[in-house]
Design a protein that fits this description.
The chain is built from seven helices and five strands. The chain is α/β, with parallel strands linked by helices and about 210 residues long. Helix 1 links the parallel strand 1 and strand 2. Keywords: Oxidoreductase.
Length: about 210
Amino acid sequence: MTQSLHIAVIAAHPRRRSFTLAMATAFADACRADGAVVEVRDLYRLGFDPRMRAREMPDHPGYAPRADVVRERQAIGDANVFALFYPLWFNAPPAMLKGYVDRVFGMGFGYSPIQRGGNQPLLVGRKLVSFTSSGAPQDWVERSGAWAAMHKQFDEHLSLMTGLEIADRHNFGAIGPGLAPVRFKECCAEVDRRARRLMASHTPIA
């Protein structure tokens, strides 16, 4: 018996009918078609609370994750791949996604409790993929340094803390109202291609 790839698709956009959610759906569908087990977490529809309370901070006496964090960790805990879908707002993830990462990927899931002045990553051997979108064209995002800064500040730091391998990242630039249907189809095709490439790189365990 082979072990299927488990993928957690984590999407953050306030509009249900959004480019972000459409790309997340296209990715999930492509992965399922190739045999993956996919768990979709649509954070706004879940009503996830991104705000961290003082008692949730790792140094709080009697620290314990809140019930909603426990549920999320159970929902995505088997994932071999975490796929993030979100728009870039001021060249950063929406507060909803940032709060999800802060709370769910924190101590006890993404990294171990601090011992002797340090902690250990707990997600080594798993992968991270990210699909973002921006109103600005991609060439401007790159020329301005925004793309490199975003990668360093968010993706690489998340990888460093948790041990996740950055397997893929892609930004769709010039996304906004009036997006041409042909461009939308091209974006869906790009997501499908990258999803199938990810699936092809997975070696099933007998």
